[in-house]
Design goal:
The complex is a heterodimer of chains A (244) and B (288). Chain A has helices spanning 43-51, 73-79, 96-107, 115-124, 140-153, 170-185, 197-201, 221-226, 228-235, and strands spanning 5-14, 17-27, 32-36, 58-63, 66-67, 81-84, 158-162, 189-193, 206-211, 214-219. Chain A is α/β, with parallel strands linked by helices and 244 residues long. Chain A starts with a strand and ends in a 9-residue tail after the last helix. The chains are: A alpha/beta (244), B mainly alpha (288).
Chain lengths: 244, 288
C-alpha cells in the first residue's frame, strides 16, 4: 500500500542551526504514530515541514504518493493534512459551530458546506452542547477539543496533533484520548506529538523519538520507552542507573 | 423648524459618510490595512460614473452595475498584484504605498479630467422632494442615498454573518496566520475583502458624484470623513459606522445652520469631543 506520508532526507536549517536532520519517515494509511523528544528537539518543526508552514531546506515530502515539497500549507490542507496547535488558536469572535464551518469551507476549497458533517464532528468531540457559544468563552479542555474538531472539519486523511493533551487534568485527558481513539478508528492517520506519554501509548502503534533534530529511536511504543537510550534522553535517567 | 430640517438633512448626509466609511472599515477589519488612498478611490469611482454615464451616454441602470463591477475587479486585482506584497506585521509599508497611490491617482485624474469641478447630473431627481408640512422638505435624492447606505450596510452584515464567504472573512479577521493551515488562501481572501470594499467604494463614488461637485483633489477630505465616521462609531461594527456617519452629518448640517463657514469645523469638533469622552467609539466591536 502507498504510504500516506513519505519524508526522504528532509533537512531544515534556521540560519546555521540544523534543526531537522535527514529525516526519513513513512506512515501507512490508518497508522497512528507517536512523537516524543525533549523540548527544542525539533518536533514542532517536523510538523511545520509536514503541514507546509515551512519549506524544507532539502529533501522531499510526499503525501498520498504525490510530491508536495513545494506546496503551501493551504493546498496541503486541501489534499488532506489537518493540524491542531499546541496553543489553541480558535477564531474567538465566532461561535464554536462557525469555527467548524469556516474550517470546512477553507479545507474543502469552497465546495458545499457539509453542515451535517460539522454537527457529527461536534458530537464526536463532545462540543455539541457548546455549539453556539463564542469560541473565546471556552475552557482549556473545550479549546483543545475545538482545535481537534476544527482540524477534523477540514476533512483530513492525516491528522497532526501537537501536544493536545498538555495542561489537561487526568480525567480530561482520558476523555480526549477516547475521542482521538474514535478518530483513529474511523481510518484517519495520526501523528501525535505528546509529552503525556501514557495518553500517547493508549493510541499509537509506533513511537519515534527525536533528539537534536534526528530520529534516534523508533518502533513498538513500549519497547521504545524501555530503551535505556530513550530513558536517558527523554527522562534524564542515566543509562547506568535504572530507577524503575 | 430650521433646526429640525438641519438635523434631518444631517441624518441623510450621514448615509453618504457611512458609505464612504464602510469600505475603509471592511478593509481594516479583515486585514488591519489602513488605506490612505480610500478617498481617492471614491473620487476615481465618481469620475468613472461620470465618464460612463455622461461621456458614453450609457443608461444609469447599466452604468451603475458596470461602475461597481469595474471597481470590484480593480480592487481584487490591485490587492493581489500590489497591496498583498506590502501586507505584513509592519503597518508602515501599506500606509506608504497607499499614500503614494493617493498622489498618483490625484495627478492622473488632474491630467485626464482637469482641475474643474464637475458633477453627475441626476435630472429631475435633483430637485424632487417630499414636503412634510411646515417648512420641512426631504429631497428624494438624499433619501435614496440614505436608503442605499442602509441597503449596503445590511447587505454587508448579511454577507458577513450569514454566508460561507463571510465566515472566511471573519475567520481571517480573527487570526489570519491560522487560516492557511485550515486550507484558506490568505492572498485570495484579502483580495475578496478589497474587491467587496471597492464595490462599496463604487456605490459611494456614484452618490458622491450626484450629491456634490467634485474635483481630482476631493479624495483626502472624503478619507477624513470616512475615518471620523468609523472612529465615532467604533471599529469593527458596521452599524456603528452608520451611526458614526449620522453623528458627523448632523454635526455638520447643524454647524452650517449656525454659520455657513462653521460646517466642516463643527464635524471635526464633535469628532474631537467623542475622542476625548469615549476614545473607543460609541459602540465598539460587538461579536456576532
Amino acid at each position: 500500500m502507498t504510504p500516506i506520508l513519505t519524508m526522504r532526507g528532509v533537512n531544515r536549517f534556521f540560519g546555521t542551526f540544523h534543526v531537522t536532520q535527514d529525516i526519513d519517515l513513512d506512515l501507512a494509511p490508518g497508522e497512528a504514530l507517536g512523537v516524543i523528544g525533549p523540548n527544542g528537539a525539533g518536533k514542532s518543526t517536523l510538523f511545520n515541514l509536514i503541514a507546509g508552514t515551512l519549506p524544507p531546506s532539502s529533501g522531499t515530502v510526499a503525501f498520498r504518493g504525490r510530491d508536495v515539497t513545494r506546496l503551501p500549507a493551504s493546498e496541503r490542507c486541501h489534499l488532506g493534512v489537518g493540524r491542531s496547535f499546541q496553543i489553541p488558536h480558535p477564531f474567538t469572535g465566532m461561535t464554536v459551530y462557525e469555527n467548524l464551518l469556516a474550517a470546512s469551507v477553507f479545507g474543502r476549497s469552497g465546495h458545499d458546506v457539509p453542515e451535517e458533517a460539522c454537527r457529527d464532528i461536534l458530537e464526536m468531540t463532545g462540543l455539541l452542547k457548546n455549539a453556539n457559544r463564542p469560541a473565546g468563552s471556552l475552557t482549556l479542555l473545550e479549546r483543545k477539543r475545538l482545535e481537534l474538531a476544527r482540524a477534523l472539519a477540514t476533512g483530513p486523511q492525516l491528522l497532526l496533533l501537537d501536544e493536545i493533551a498538555g495542561g489537561l487534568t487526568e480525567a480530561e485527558c482520558q476523555e480526549l484520548v477516547a475521542t482521538i481513539s474514535a478518530v483513529r478508528d474511523s481510518g484517519v492517520s495520526i501523528i501525535w506529538i505528546e509529552h503525556v506519554v501514557h495518553a500517547l501509548l493508549a493510541i499509537v502503534s509506533r513511537l519515534i523519538v527525536i533528539d537534536f533534530g534526528k530520529i534516534v529511536a523508533q518502533g513498538e511504543p513500549r519497547a521504545v520507552m524501555a530503551d535505556p537510550l530513550v530513558r536517558e534522553i527523554y527522562m534524564g535517567i542515566p543509562a547506568d542507573e535504572d530507577a524503575a | 423648524m430650521v433646526w429640525v430640517n438641519a438635523i434631518i438633512q444631517g441624518v441623510l448626509l450621514g448615509g453618504l459618510y457611512a458609505l464612504f466609511a464602510a469600505g475603509l472599515s471592511l478593509m481594516f477589519g479583515v486585514m488591519r490595512f489602513v488605506n490612505i488612498a480610500h478617498g481617492d478611490f471614491i473620487v476615481v469611482a465618481a469620475y468613472l460614473a461620470l465618464t460612463v454615464m455622461v461621456s458614453l451616454g450609457i443608461s444609469p441602470w447599466v452604468a451603475v452595475p458596470v461602475v461597481v463591477a469595474v471597481m470590484a475587479a480593480t480592487g481584487y486585482l490591485g490587492q493581489r498584484l500590489l497591496l498583498n506584497r506590502v501586507l505584513g506585521k509592519d503597518i508602515l509599508p501599506p500606509i506608504l504605498v497607499t499614500f503614494g497611490l493617493s498622489i498618483i491617482l490625484q495627478n492622473a485624474l488632474l491630467e485626464t479630467f482637469s482641475a474643474d469641478s464637475v458633477r453627475l447630473p441626476a435630472g429631475a431627481l435633483e430637485t424632487a422632494s417630499l414636503t412634510l408640512g411646515d417648512g420641512i422638505a426631504i429631497g428624494i435624492l438624499p433619501l435614496a442615498m440614505f436608503a442605499t447606505a442602509i441597503g449596503v450596510i445590511a447587505g454587508l452584515q448579511l454577507i458577513f454573518y450569514r454566508t460561507p464567504l463571510g465566515r472566511m472573512l471573519r475567520a481571517t479577521s480573527d487570526d489570519a496566520e491560522i487560516v492557511p493551515l485550515m486550507g484558506g488562501n490568505n492572498a485570495h481572501i484579502f483580495a475578496i475583502a478589497t474587491g467587496l470594499a471597492s464595490a462599496v467604494v463604487g456605490v459611494a463614488g456614484i452618490w458622491l458624484a450626484m450629491r456634490t461637485n467634485f474635483d481630482p483633489a476631493a479624495g483626502p477630505v472624503r478619507l477624513l470623513f470616512a475615518f471620523e465616521a468609523v472612529i465615532i462609531g467604533g471599529l469593527g461594527n458596521i452599524w456603528a459606522t452608520l451611526a458614526g456617519g449620522i453623528i458627523l452629518g448632523v454635526a455638520q448640517t447643524v454647524g452650517a445652520q449656525i454659520d455657513a463657514g462653521f460646517q466642516i469645523l463643527a464635524g471635526h469638533l464633535v469628532f474631537l469631543l467623542i475622542l476625548i469622552v469615549k476614545p473607543t467609539g460609541l459602540m465598539p466591536r460587538m461579536t456576532g
